[in-house]
Amino acid sequence: MSKTISIDVISDHVCPWCYVGKRRLEAAIARRPELDVKVTWQPFQLSPEMPREGRRRVEHYREIFGEERAEMIMGSMKDTGIEEDIKFGNDPEAMSPNTLSAHVLMLWAREDENVNADEVAEKLFHAHHVDCEDIGDHAILLRIAREVGMDDTGLADKLLAGADEEKVVDLIRESAERGISGVPFFIINGRYGLSGAQPADALVEALDQIAAEDATNN
Fold this sequence. Notes:
By secondary structure, the chain is α+β, with helices and mostly antiparallel strands. 52% of the residues lie in helices and 13% in strands.
């Protein structure tokens, strides 16, 4: 039996390239079905200063990139999304949320052996990027929790009280201390780092190299 290859994916759900990176990682893993790959989703916040109620996405993007560049970036992401079967939405009223609560939900999914954390990640990405929903809204998060079979008893109260937010902040801090300043970022077996939404071919090459090293060391 092959050794498990662990991949920590550091990402933020509002990052379009993180969604693209997820698709490419899935494609790479699918091309190596003989490998035992365990993916763990780790938090990151591109805009930790974002108000908890969020801001209109159009305004947020224009503030960061300028109006002309923001339009170019959004158009380019639509083209990239088509290649990865992601239909990026373009609702002018869409929000840029504070993603701390979404990362808390992701943390709870990771800790619940009865929940598929990859499915939660997909739903959060899809809600934000395709359906243009506000994933800073606890009602949206609770709906996603129910959809994946999470026990939602007391979940609304826990989100409102900010339960486990410090845990998430600590995880983000740990990534920063490792020098990670942009996402997506992939850490394989705790020692190999890949930055950016790597093409599936590059990820397959990395998996093959690590699998070969594991075989040699056994």
